[in-house]
Backbone:
């Protein structure tokens, strides 16, 4: 899978080429995804996206749905490509995970607005709160969604600090889900690679 900085139909693999590539490289992509995953408390996880994770997602969707027509390929690109970080930010899929249906329903009603209370705190800088669900609103007056898409946008000085090795924390200050942790060094090193 060649990273180009811009996902287009022309630089995706054909279904046949991807099937061969997938057999040899799936474990590496899973390891990359795991490195970029952060668990915050018992029920919240974030999967920080990259060009690698999004290319893989698009190729998987094309493979599963057996899409090979230009329009279908473009639809998948338009759905997922906005989740690739673009040099001054981190983008993540945020998931609220409750296995019990009754507990999930109760907690999703208690956690309305949680996506807006997610933050990154870079050493020596103020908190940066998530910009959530830019594509569509994922909550209503009764509950929040179990899945949100969040973006953390950094000022130039924050980007420089990340590139220089500053420590960073991730957290949530929602009344019903207060939590924060220091981002593990190996995960932070991977995320810092998203910053120009």
Residues:
């Amino acid at each position: 899978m060649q990273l180009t900085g811009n996902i287009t139909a022309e630089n995706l693999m054909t279904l046949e080429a991807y099937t061969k590539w997938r057999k040899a490289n799936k474990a590496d992509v899973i390891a990359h995804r795991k490195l970029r995953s952060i668990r915050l408390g018992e029920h919240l996880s974030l999967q920080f996206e990259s060009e690698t994770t999004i290319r893989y997602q698009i190729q998987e969707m094309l493979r599963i749905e057996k899409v090979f027509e230009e329009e279908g390929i473009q639809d998948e690109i338009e759905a997922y490509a906005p989740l690739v970080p673009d040099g001054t930010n981190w983008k993540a899929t945020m998931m609220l995970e409750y296995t019990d249906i009754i507990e999930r329903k109760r907690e999703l009603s208690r956690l309305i607005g949680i996506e807006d209370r997610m933050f990154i705190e870079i050493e020596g800088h103020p908190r940066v709160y998530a910009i959530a669900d830019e594509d569509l609103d994922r909550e209503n007056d009764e509950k929040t969604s179990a899945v949100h898409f969040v973006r953390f946008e950094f000022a130039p000085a924050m980007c420089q600090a990340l590139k220089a090795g500053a420590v960073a924390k991730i957290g949530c200050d929602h009344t019903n889900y207060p939590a924060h942790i220091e981002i593990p060094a190996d995960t932070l090193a991977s995320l810092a690679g998203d910053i120009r």
